Amino acid sequence: QDRNERKPLIPHPNPDSKPTNGAERNSASLPSARTDEQALLSSILIKTAQNIIDVSAADSQGMEQHEYMDKARQYSTRLAVLSNSLSQKKPAPLPSLTSQPHQVLASDPVLYSDIQQVSKIAAYAYSAISQIKVDAKEELVVQFAIP
């Protein structure tokens, strides 16, 4: 079984030669840059496949079909329990500013002078906040004398 775990998932395209990496390319055997890129990508794919151990394939050798069916039943039961618990936890609805939005929409529009006044107050507030400055009196971080 250990031998099968180290078996590459993707066989090497040319078993007589060892896989190339970026430093071991032979420019005489590769006629174009596209072939060179393909060889490099192929070597990366082969190295990745050699470093992957297929756990699902190793697990399948010792299980009978009824054991698979039992596990599938257990997983579906757990999934049903989890999905039921998630469906009961519905997110809170968005807050509503009014219970009767049709009355708000049907009411008279806001006067332009009120909008100007709110805009003017907001501009004053922005100006005041932008002029706030912190005057540092002492350092915030001080070193303790550790003997």
Description:
- There is one protein chain.
- The radius of gyration is 35 Å and the shape is extended.
- It is an all-alpha fold.
- The chain has helices at about 1-5, 35-50, 55-60, 65-90, 100-105, 110-130.
- It is built from 6 helices and no strands.
- Helix content is about 50%, strand content about 0%.
- It starts with a helix and ends in a 17-residue tail after the last helix.
Keywords summarizing the entry:
single chain; extended; mainly alpha
Describe the structure concisely:
This protein is mostly helical and 147 residues long. It is built from 6 helices and no strands.
Topology:
Blueprint: H1 2-5, H2 33-51, H3 55-59, H4 65-88, H5 101-106, H6 112-130
Q: SSE order in H/E notation? A: HHHHHH
Q: Total number of helical segments?
A: 6
Q: Major sheet, described briefly?
A: none
Rg, Å, rounded:
35 Å
The helicity comes to: 40-55%
What's the total count of β strands? 0
Q: Beta-strand percentage?
A: under 5%
Shape: extended
**Distance between the terminal alpha carbons, to the nearest Å?**
61 Å
Mean pLDDT: 75
Q: How does the helix and strand content classify structurally?
A: mainly alpha
Q: Low-confidence parts lasting 5 or more residues at pLDDT below 50? A: 21-25
